[in-house]
Design a protein that fits this description.
The structure is a homodimer. By secondary structure, chain A is of the alpha+beta class. The first copy, chain A, has a domain at about 30-68. Chain A is about 35% helix and about 35% strand. Chain A has 2 helices and 4 strands, in the order E-H-E-E-H-E. Chain A has helices at about 15-25, 50-60; strands at about 1-10, 30-35, 40-45, 65. In chain A, strands 2-3-1-4 form a 4-stranded antiparallel sheet, with helices on one face. In chain A, a hairpin with a 4-residue loop joins strand 2 (about 30-35) and strand 3 (about 40-45). In chain A, helix 1 crosses helix 2 (about 50-60). Chain A is globular. The interface between A and B is small, with 7 and 8 residues.
């Protein structure tokens, strides 16, 4: 099990948090996604380390932007 | 057919707009709901004038606040 924390820009409300959690949570091997709306921090727990582009793609799919 | 415009506080993104449109749109007799995210203006077209408390209740249900 591995954890990585990213920063997502553009989330403004609980719906945004839900959209990011849903898209990132659908990536293969992801067990948990925690989001801090205030800071934009997205902590992803997964079986294996995830390719950054996979996470970025899911965030884009949700309508936001991975910035760190 | 009648139109009334309200002001809703707290909407920050397109998801918020969607939530308000959905809840207000479910009120009996409502034909159309238009929302301006920038101003918080919610224009409701309905068969008959709606009780203000019905609209306020739907907005609250969506998670926002009717302020005018």
């Amino acid at each position: 099990m591995t954890e990585a924390t990213y920063t997502v820009e553009g989330m403004t409300c609980a719906h945004c948090v839900g959209a990011v959690k849903e898209e990132v949570g659908e990536l293969a091997g992801v067990d948990a996604v925690e989001v801090d709306l205030e800071t934009g921090a997205v902590k992803v727990t997964s079986e294996q380390p995830l390719p950054r582009e996979a996470v970025a793609g899911a965030v884009t799919e949700a309508g936001y932007r991975l910035v760190a």
